[in-house]
Amino acid sequence: MMQTNQLLLIFCSVLLILGLIAFFVGRSKAANLRASGTSMYAQPDQYAWFAVLSTAGPAVLVGVLGAFVLLLLGAEIHPLYLLSASLVVAAAGLAVGVVQVRANFHARKAIERVIRWVLAGAALISIFTTFGILFSIIAEALRFFQMHSFWEFITGTTWNPGASFLAAAGRGDGSGAQFGSVPLFAGTFMITLIAMLVAVPIGLASAIYMSEYAPTRVRTIAKPLLEILAGIPTVVYGFFAAITVAPIIVNIAGFFGLDASYNNAVAPGVVMGIMIIPFISSLSDDVINAVPDSMRQGSLALGMTKGETIRDVVVPAALPGVISASLLGMSRALGETMIVVMAAGMRPNLTANPLEDMTTVTVRIVAALTGDQEFESAETLSAFALGLVLFAVTLSLNLVSVIMIRRFREKYRVNNL
Amino acid sequence: MNSMNSQATVQTPGQSAERVEQQTPAVGQPYTRNSEASHDLSIRVRDLNLWYGKSQALSNISIDLFQKNVTALIGPSGCGKSTFLRCLNRMNDLIPSVNISGLVEMDGRDVNAAKMDEVALRRRVGMVFQKPNPFPKSIYENIAYAPRMHDMVSRKADQDELVEKALRDSGLWNEVKDKLHEPGTSLSGGQQQRLCIARAIAVQPDVILMDEPTSALDPISTATIEDLMDKLKEQFTIVTVTHNMQQAARVADYTAFFHLGEIIEYNDTKVMFSTPAQKKTEDYISGRYG
Amino acid sequence: MSDSFDQISQQLKRRHRKSARLKWLSMGALGLAGLFLLWFFTDMLIKGLPAFQQAYVETEISYSEEASTDARQAIDSDLIPIVSRTEIRSIPRLLRNEPDLIGSSETLWLLANSQVDQYLKGQRNKLSDEEIATVDRLVESGQVTQKFNSTFFTQGDSKTAESAGILSAVVGTIMTMIVTLAIAFPIGVMTAIYLEEFAPDNRFTQLIEININNLAAIPSILFGLLGLAIFINFFGVPRSSPLVGGMTLALMTLPVIIISTRTALRSVPESIRHAAFGLGCSRWQVVKDHVLPLAMPGIMTGSIIGLAQAMGETAPLIIVGMVAFIPDVGASFTEAATVMPAQVFTWASEPEKAFVEKTAGGILLLLTILISLNASAVILRKKFERRW
Questions:
Q1: Which of B71, B77, B84 lies closest to B262, judged by CA?
Q2: Is C15's pLDDT higher than 80?
Q3: How many angstroms separate the CA atoms of A344 and A324, rounded?
Q4: Buried b (16+ CB within 10 A) or exposed e, C91-105
Q5: pLDDT-derived band of residue A113, with 50, 70 and 90 as boundaries?
Q6: pLDDT at B14
Q7: Residue A173's pLDDT is what?
Q8: pLDDT: is C342 or A413 the higher one?
């Protein structure tokens, strides 16, 4: 590691020096040319920058490519060779850059072409990220499905990875391990359902109040306050759900003579719902505001009360947007991790009783990837299989949501949504 | 200009502001002329003033509107005719900065009184807007919705009948009878506007206010709606705002000319367009400004 | 002829009541959300504020010969169950480093143990009746008292509650955020400039756009899976390090920065671009010299919000191993470190009761930082907001 650091340092400092040389030589040459009365296509500074680019660009490219080949493909190249190779390229680039300082050379256009490519390259990174996620998850998930059947994973009702790490360690054959994900998804959907039952009515009703009833002053205060709910870190919600809300749920259940676990699904569900309120309220608020006033007036002019107008005309008109907001909120609830890790249970439990402890997909992903386990074990890889399903589900929810909001936008020709 | 701002200047048709100033206001008296149309008073307006914040939009409006007639409000844009129209069913309540003084009387009741329920008022004074605004519901529901909420129909058969009648009255029935359950927004602009008229008449109001109902439509649709207005006045009192003088001349029994928030002249349409009493009216009608 | 006003009003009564009910219902919903916010903050303050106070014991330490092997000889035997074990354990080390001290004695305020601390704060504790009597006596005589808990801000994590502090997590957070910003800010701004100012409107650009919106909605834990599979397993970036954590969070922050930068760029009116083009500027010069400076406040606001979001994120960091026990303040981007929310998570999973207040204390600090960041973003936006 130290050696790589030193090499990197040498590379950077030499490159810096060469770059400076390129800049000043390029500029003075261009200035001389100009002083001699030749009319030129660009400013001396632009020639200077072109020289710097032609020095550093190819050299960095060679260096990065070399390092990539070295690290990934395990090619036997001595780092020193790589260093000297890239520095030679830098020197060559310097020479080319200085030679190119000619009156009829479009230095500015050349620079801008490079800038354009660099910007486009930056834009590609977001694509790489998505494909990176997809690729890494699919690759590992495929390895998992080589060990365990896909069918069992989708339909099995027992999640018991216990014996798999022994198999990975070479002891036992791992036959005792079972990876039926149904109880995990059941738990996830139960908690998501509770969250949506809290978030959708409160979020929608708050949005209705803010857009239809509230005086401007209340609105300007209430909106950012609601946004605070969305800004609270999920780990904090998790702590709150586990320490404060769960015991209250247990007490309330006890009051009605019901037996509730401290890791019940209600506490994380309710807290998650509260977290999602601002997602739903702020988008619904925007959408309700975008419903044209002529709709409201049309209804009021028929002798409808304000409440009827809102219930029967405004909300139905805004419905695609509200559904879209709810789908986004739902996708957030499905993928939410910290609240369930801290407040929900660890035990896969296929039950319809929300007062029992149950676990979720994200909890099992975290459980599988923390602790000292072999990466190769089926349990670790199962995390990626779970992640793949999670990715697919949230992606489809997001896409449907985007399509619905686009429909709404086209219908009422609103552009700011 | 009307110099009698401090005094009640009631305008009944046939009497311009100048001519009426020394007379006792013709309150509740039907204007009579050689016409077979009935002339019962529908809405009586006295000394109506309206301010948006500090700027006055209507000053001392006094006018009698008669039942089962079409009254057209004309005037250059910004003259207050739409604002006045919206006073008649209190749609201006929706704008927080509006202040109103004066009397708008219907059925012997002050429309602006605290005790008056504006929802009840709008039930009797319907409105059709400049741009067609059908609800995001089916054609059928667009019409059936309000009567159902008003408990006007209880059985499904009654409801069907009412929808059909409203659509027939608005001349839309033959065009839409096969697609009653398609969204109202799927119709053409002119059809949408007639749907909005059907929606308004379905609740059986006394008065229908129309705020430039044809300004967003093509000439053919406009003609259809003008014919419709002519038919509807047999059942309803119609007050329409228009910036199209030919339209006023074609459809209206009475016409009021608004200018800068005041009524300059209010008269029988034929009289108004042939021998206007006021120079301003004459200038406007002959297209010298507007 | 329709019904009279009175008849209609009569029919309307029920409907007006219903209408009013909707108003109160919707107001109640907003109130409920507000009430929850109030409850949440009160609860956190009640649980967390005591963490900033800590019981100290005034102790006479005699640095005798025996104390260098058996530290318990150094202080009064009564005080041994009261003083923090970490303080006692440090005595032999101190004497090894400074043998000159042997034979002397001094009186210092030492950290009390967490049980005493909890007892003084009225919480449940495991002190015996005898120990409680001793503590009461010492409180009476002023030898045990609560002071501002500087340990919390100057120490790293510890397994003993009284000497656990958040400093290593704060430093870890700063280092991670440096990495995140260093990656996400330039790439995000460059992407936004490309999409807004340069990109042709074709399939490819639309793909990038859809992709960015999608990226913003992918569950954060999946970014952790990416970090684990690609950064750690593929590229060999050291596990648990601020480098890998920062890189993972950078990918998450990227869409936030891109989206807000695009909004900022779009709000710069087209007329300014036309004016600059008219002066013979090239596209890049227009962007660099005219559009970017005007869009800067918006870009900064978006970046601060993205930063605050990344700062509160835990799930992907668990996956890349940043939830670790880190007693020492880190100094390198490639060594194991922890961040504030991860520290909160670690403390929350400690079984000892005294860690509850540490957790809540950490939460208060984290919330204070996040709220001030967001507030500064709002102020920045207000200050530079321009209507064209």
A1: B84
A2: yes
A3: 27
A4: beeebeeeeebeeee
A5: confident
A6: 54
A7: 54
A8: C342
- Residues A143 and A139: their CA atoms lie apart, in Å, by 7
Query: Dihedral through CA A23, CA A26, CA A30, CA A33, nearest 10?
Result: 150
pLDDT score for B22 = 36
Q: Quick check: A297 and B89 CB within 8 A?
A: no
Rounded to whole angstroms, the maximal C-alpha distance in chain C is 112
Amino acid at B222: T
> Do the beta carbons of residue C65 and residue C102 sit within 8 Å?
yes
> Which chain C residue shows the shortest CA-CA distance from A417?
C263
Q: Does A214 touch chain B (CB under 8 A)?
A: no
- Across-strand partners of C54? C147
Residues in chain B: 290
Of A244, A342, A398, the CB nearest to C43: A244
Question: What pLDDT is attached to residue C214?
Answer: 86
- Average pLDDT for residues A132-156, to the nearest whole number? 87
pLDDT in tens, A184-207: 999 999 999 999 999 999 999 999
Residue C290 DSSP class: I
C326-to-C31, C336, C357 alpha-carbon distances in Å: 42, 8, 19
- C56 to chain A nearest CA, in Å? 27
Question: Touching check for A369 and chain C: CB below 8 Å?
Answer: yes
Model confidence over B261-271: pLDDT tens digits? 999 889 889 88
**What ipTM does this complex have?**
0.91
Q: Which two tokens stand for residue A110?
A: 């050349």
Digit-coded pLDDT (tens) for B139-169: 999 999 999 999 888 889 999 999 999 999 8
The answer to whether A109 touches A89, Cβ cutoff 8 Å, is no
State the average pLDDT over residues A66-72: 70
Percent of chain A with pLDDT over 90: 40
Q: What is the rounded CA–CA span in Å between residue A214 and residue A218?
A: 6
Any C CB within 8 A of A360 CB: no
Average pLDDT over residues C367-376: 93
The whole-number pLDDT of residue A374 equals 64
Using CB atoms, pick whichever of A296, A297, A303 lies closest to residue B203. Answer: A303
Q: Which two tokens stand for residue C36?
A: 């929850």
Taking contacts as CB-CB distances below 8 angstroms, the residues of chain C near A123 are: 190-191, 194-195, 199, 208
Q: Which partners does chain C have (≥3 C-beta pairs < 8 Å)?
A: A, B
Q: Which band of pLDDT confidence, cut at 50, 70 and 90, is reported for residue C143?
A: confident
Structure tokens at A236: 């904090």
Q: Which residue has the tokens 């650009």?
A: C205
Number of Cβ within a 10 Å radius of residue C148: 11
As given in the structure block, the two tokens for residue A189 are 């959907």
Question: Under DSSP, is residue C146 helix (H, G, I), strand (E, B) or coil?
Answer: strand
Sign (positive/negative) of CA torsion A370, C309, C368, A191?
negative
Contact residues, chain A, for B129 at CB < 8 Å = 294, 297-298, 301
Contact A33/A103 with Cβ under 8 angstroms? Answer: yes
Task: Give the helix/strand (H/E) hosting A91.
Answer: helix A79-99
Average pLDDT, chain B: 84
pTM of the model: 0.86
Q: Residues A416, A283: contact at Cβ < 8 Å?
A: no
Burial B87-125 (b: 16+ CB within 10 A, else e): bbbbbbbeeeebebebebbbbebebbeeebbbbbbbbbb
Task: Please tell me what DSSP assigns to residue C70.
Answer: -
CA distance A322 to A326: 6
Distance CA A273, CA A279 (A): 10
Q: How far is CA A98 from the centre of its chain?
A: 44
Q: Which residues have a Cβ under 8 Å from the Cβ of C321 and sit 6 or more positions away?
A: A370, C232, C239, C240, C244, C336
Do A240 and C43 lie within an 8 Å CB cutoff? yes
Among A95, A93, A273, CA closest to A200: A273
